[in-house]
Structure formats: C-alpha cells, structure tokens
What does this fold into?
Amino acid sequence: MVNAVQWVAAEAITAAAWTDPSYSYATNYISDLGVPECGTKFQGRDICSPAHELMNASFIVQGILFATGVVLLARLVEGRARRVITALAVAHGVAFVLVGLFHGAGDGAKLSLAVHVGAAAVGILCANTVAIMAGSLRSLGLPPAYRIFSITVGVLGLLSEVFVGASASTAGVFERGGVYSWLLWGAVTGVLVLVKHRRSPAMMENVAV
It folds into this structure.
C-alpha cells in the first residue's frame, strides 16, 4: 500500500517540477521523469526533469517494496507456486533498482539506455504476472471478486504495454496502464490481506515467521 502511494506522489511531484515544456502524462514516458540531462530531445520528446533524483529514487524504492511485499505474501502459498512468485518478485525488484540507476534517454551511454529499457520490460512483465498468479491461487483465501480483479488487472496491464508504441500521442497512457495495474493490485491486495488479518490473526502467522 505504501509502495503505490510513494510512486504516485513522487511521479506527481516530479512531473509538476517539469515546466519547460510542460510534462504530459499522455505523451511522455514515465522514464522521462528520471532522465538527468535537461534540454535534450529523445524520440521527438523534449526532455527536462529538474527533480529526476526523486523519480529515480522512487523507481528503486518501488522495486524493493514490491519485492518485499510479494515475497512475504508468497509465504501464504505452498509448493512450486511459492517459488515462482518469489522468483518473479525478486526479478522485479532487481529490475526496478536497475531502472532507477540507469536512465532512459538517448544522450546517455547506449548501454545505459539498453539496461533501462530491458529492466523496465522485465519488471513490468514480472509484476503483472504476479497479479495474474495471485488471482489464480485459492490458497490466499481472498474472495472470488478479488481473484477476478487480480487476473483482469494483470492481463490488462500486459495488454496495455503492447499498445505503447501504437501512437506517440498515447504512449504515456498505455505505458501507465501497464504500471498502474500492479500498483493498484498491490494496494488492493494489501488492504484485503490487512482486513482479513484483523478478522483472523492466525492467517498471518506464516508471514511473520
């Protein structure tokens, strides 16, 4: 839950600091907010993010918080599913630490851009897959409506990324569809697990161990 809040807040603050030209949630990529060089142009977009340190820190914090939360959640799952979810969570965490360390603009080293793009793709894929898997597992003990929500939001997140390159005017919208999907999933999952724990404290004993 904290993860979703910190990301949205950091993104809003960093975007607000970008004034010349104004940052666009529709056409600019999220990664543009973390580019340290100001006054550059990349893929036709003017880049200038004065508060890039904040967004890069948020990328790193997001990876750590998401991975930690999902690894703890995986303790409620048995067998192969636990191992797969844990592996996906760790891969996502490492990927987003790299996203925060290597920025995504063409004026930097080509290796930096390659690492950024590759890590972002891995992170997005892993996080949305975790959401889909969580919805498919009855062992979490969460309601059927949640399971439908979880699978749906994960699938829509992956589909959204497919259309990122469809149009320059909507690239930011579709990219956010693939990112906000897992942020929303994490927040909703956190609330439901917390509520269930309050009703049945024994449920979370495995997580605390």
User: Anything to note?
Assistant: DSSP finds seven helices and two strands in the chain. The helical segments are 2-17, 52-74, 79-101, 110-136, 144-162, 171-199, 205-208. The chain has one domain: 2-16+29-208.
